[in-house]
């Protein structure tokens, strides 16, 4: 398949750069297994799920991973912590007028925390901090909100660019699992009261989620690597849900990638798994876990658009997206949501 197969025109004014006042106030476009779309509100998710169904949610927490600093010469730099290795060492993106070499020293904050570049790991810099990284992020870091917001992080993002169920011990993402941003505690309580189950997996979202696909033939694209953890207990719940004929609903592409990675690593068996995943899901992929997907509206020609097309079809998704544009749905991280049903279940 060609990259251009996943293109569509998106007016700039449909990009949601700020959240709605209430998390669950967004709209919901339901794309059913027959490829028909239905205009709803997100709270209608209560009517679309059945007792015994299982929601799979990503409990990662977003780090204040963006740091402003300077070189020894005074030139401005920006350090984005992508993945911590040990408390003082991380793999990072660095923006500077010239790419820093091994041995270069950068300085963060008024007390000039020293950051030393020690080498490269693929497209990232290996850097050593003179103070514990999490302490530095807490003191000087900013939330790394998506580039298409075209603004700096603001106070509103501190709460709204995190899920209500994020796990503080899993502070390691540089982007939010945005489908989960639609859930407030009241809606979660209502789902639980209806008998809809939930389980948590972890995938630490990397900045690679925003990288464009640069190959015309999408099968030549190499996915970025992200760490995930899917417990045996979560996979057992998934297995039991399927056995009784209920549906497994992944909340977001990250929960999808985590659970499908675990199944893939175990040869299709529904067992727990922890590790780095580079799974690339595009049309033709056979899902082992996910029956339905709650997700936001994604960028043209993105791997996320390819993933949702794999669960339905590319034709169904693009028709739904054209409808969403015509009806002025809000796009991307702070935008509206979709519920996509697998065409395999029709």
Q: Which tags fit this structure?
A:
346 residues; QueA_dom1; nine-stranded mixed sheet; cytoplasm; queuosine biosynthesis; 21% helix
Fold and architecture overview:
By secondary structure, the chain is an alpha/beta fold. Helices cover 21% and strands 27% of the residues. The chain has 8 helices and 17 strands. A 9-stranded mixed beta sheet has the order 2-1-17-16-14-3-12-13-15. A 6-stranded antiparallel barrel has the order 5-6-7-10-9-8. Strands 4-11 form a two-stranded parallel sheet. Helix 7 (303-311) packs across helix 8. The radius of gyration is 20 Å and the shape is globular. The model has no long low-confidence stretch (mean pLDDT 96).
Topology:
Layout: E1 27-31, E2 37-41, H1 45-48, E3 54-58, E4 61-62, E5 66-71, E6 76-86, E7 89-96, E8 105-108, E9 113-121, E10 124-129, H2 133-140, H3 155-160, E11 171-173, H4 185-193, E12 197-203, E13 226-230, H5 232-243, E14 248-251, H6 253-265, E15 273-277, E16 292-296, H7 303-311, H8 314-326, E17 337-341
Parallel strand pairs: 1-17, 3-12, 3-14, 4-11, 14-16
Antiparallel strand pairs: 1-2, 5-6, 5-8, 6-7, 7-10, 8-9, 9-10, 12-13, 13-15, 16-17
Pathway: tRNA modification; tRNA-queuosine biosynthesis
InterPro entries: QueA, QueA_dom1, QueA_dom2, QueA_sf
GO molecular function: S-adenosylmethionine:tRNA ribosyltransferase-isomerase activity
């Amino acid at each position: 398949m060609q990259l251009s197969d996943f293109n569509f025109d998106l007016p700039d004014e449909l990009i949601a750069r700020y959240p709605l006042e209430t998390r669950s106030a967004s709209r919901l476009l339901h794309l059913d297994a027959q490829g028909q779309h239905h205009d709803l509100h997100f709270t209608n998710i209560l009517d679309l799920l059945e007792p015994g169904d299982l929601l799979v949610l990503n409990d990662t927490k977003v780090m204040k991973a963006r740091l402003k600093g300077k070189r020894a010469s005074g030139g401005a730099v920006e350090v984005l912590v992508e993945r911590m290795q040990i408390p003082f060492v991380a793999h990072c993106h660095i923006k500077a007028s010239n790419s820093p070499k091994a041995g270069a020293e950068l300085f963060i904050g008024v007390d000039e925390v020293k950051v030393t570049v020690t080498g490269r790991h693929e497209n990232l810099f290996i850097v050593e901090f003179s103070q514990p990284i999490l302490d530095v992020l807490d003191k000087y870091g900013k939330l790394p909100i998506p580039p298409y917001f075209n603004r700096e992080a603001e106070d509103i993002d501190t709460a709204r660019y995190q899920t209500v169920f994020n796990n503080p011990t899993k502070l390691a993402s540089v982007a939010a699992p945005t489908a989960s941003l639609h859930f407030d505690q009241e809606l979660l309580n209502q789902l639980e009261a209806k008998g809809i189950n939930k389980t948590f997996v972890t995938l630490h979202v990397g900045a690679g989620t925003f990288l464009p696909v640069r190959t015309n033939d999408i099968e030549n694209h190499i996915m970025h690597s992200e760490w995930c953890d899917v417990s045996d207990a979560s996979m057992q719940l998934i297995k039991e849900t399927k056995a009784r004929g209920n549906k497994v609903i992944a909340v977001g592409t990250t929960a999808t990638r985590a659970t499908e990675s675990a199944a893939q690593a175990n040869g299709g068996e529904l067992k727990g798994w922890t590790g780095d995943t580079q799974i690339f899901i595009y049309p033709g992929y056979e899902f082992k876990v996910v029956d339905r997907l709650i997700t936001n509206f994604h960028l043209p020609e993105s791997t996320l658009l390819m993933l949702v097309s794999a669960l339905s079809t590319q034709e169904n998704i693009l028709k739904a997206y054209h409808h969403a544009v015509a009806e002025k749905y809000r796009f991307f991280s702070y935008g509206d949501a979709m519920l996509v049903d697998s065409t395999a279940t029709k």
